[in-house]
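[Q] Does anyone have a clean structure-token version of this?
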Amino acid sequence: MTTIKMLIKRHAVLTYYIVVFTISWGGLLILAGPGGVPGTAAQVEALFPFMLLLLFAGPSIAGPLLTMLVDGR
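[A] Here you go.
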């Protein structure tokens, strides 16, 4: 576990962006599902609030998560 912490400390900004990208875009891909991105305006409007939450969740989760992993607070 110490090796992972040292890697995160050495490359903190890169790790942050990777975690944010993974949470945000990974969540959007899961939300779109195997059917792909919805095509009609009604489908997009129904999923838009969830998509917006997922995009905001990336930075909101990554910051405290990495702080907890590196500093233990």
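[Q] Thanks! Anything notable?
[A] The chain has a mean pLDDT of 85.
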